[in-house]
Amino acid sequence: MSSRVLRTAAVLLPIGLAGAHIGPAATWLPGVRLPFFPRLAGTGPRHHVALTFDDGPDPVATPRFLDVLDELGARATFFVLGEHAARHPALVAETARRGHEIAVHGWTHDRPWLPAVGRETTGLLRTARAVRDITGRRPRWYRPPYGILTSARWLAARRAGLRPVLWSAWGKDWRADATPESVRALISADLRGGGTILLHDSDRLAAPGCWRSTLAALPAIVRDCREAGLAVGTLREHEPGEHERA
User: Fold this and answer.
1) Contact 97, 245 (CB under 8 A)
2) Phi then psi dihedrals of residue 232, to 5 deg
3) End-to-end alpha carbon distance in the chain
C-alpha cells in the first residue's frame, strides 16, 4: 500500500469515526426526529400527553413544582441527574411518593463530543442504581443532556437497560428571556395528542430563576392540554396499551 493511500486513510478514518459517533445527534432536529423516529420523540396515544421535567432534583424549585402538580391533579416524569439525586435522596423519594415517575438524565450534565462508551455506561448505571435504591423501582427512560444522543449514548443506554426518549414540544424555559407567556406559547405551538412536553424544574444549568416562569406557566399548559381533550401524565402512562394494562 502506498504512503499516499496510508496518509489519506489516516485522515479519513478519524472523520468517519467522528461521524459515526455524532451522527445520531441529528435526531435532536424536530424535522428528523418527529417523522422518522416517533418513539424517540416520545409519541404515544393520541388522547394523552406526557409531561416531563429535566435537571432536578432541585431542593429550592422541585418542591414547588410538586405542590402545583398536586393542585392540578397531574403527574409527570422527572429526569434526574444522578449526582444531585444522591445529594437529595429524600426529595427524589418524595417525588415518587406523590405519584410521579423518576427517570435518568445522566450522572452529570455534560456534552458528549468525544466517544466515551465506558464513561457513559458507568454514569447511566450509577444513576439508574441510585433511582432504584431510593424509589424501589427501576427506571425505564433516559433523556441525554442537551438532547444530544450520540452513538456512545445509544449504546450506553442499551447496556443500562434504558430507553432513550426526547420530546415533541418544549418551552425553551432555560433562557434568561423566558416568561410564563413565552413558555406557554412555545408549548402550545407544538402541542399535539401523543406528544411529550419538555420543561425544567431547576435553573442549575440555565438562567438564574428561569424556573419561576415555568412554574407560573404550568397551570395554563395543563389546562390547554385538558381543554384540547388530552389527558396529562407520565411517560409510563404514555406507552401504547399502558392504560389497558393498568
Assistant:
1) no
2) -115, 130
3) 63
Three-state DSSP class for 223? helix
Grid coordinates of 119 = 464513561
- Supply the residues annotated as catalytic: 54, 200
Q: Give tens-digit pLDDT for 3-56.
A: 553 343 333 334 333 444 455 656 646 777 777 788 898 999 999 999 999 999
Task: Give the position of cell 444522543.
Answer: 149
- Is pTM, for the whole model, over 0.85? yes
154, 164 contact by CB (below 8 A): yes
The C-alpha atoms of residue 114 and residue 150 are separated, in whole angstroms, by 9
Q: Report the C-alpha gap between 155 and 50 in whole angstroms.
A: 25
Q: Which is higher by pLDDT, 243 or 223? A: 223
The reported pLDDT for the residue numbered 33 is: 72
> What does DSSP say about strands 48-56 and 101-104: parallel, antiparallel, or unpaired?
unpaired
Q: Residue 239, SS3? A: coil
Q: Residue 117 pLDDT more than 90?
A: no
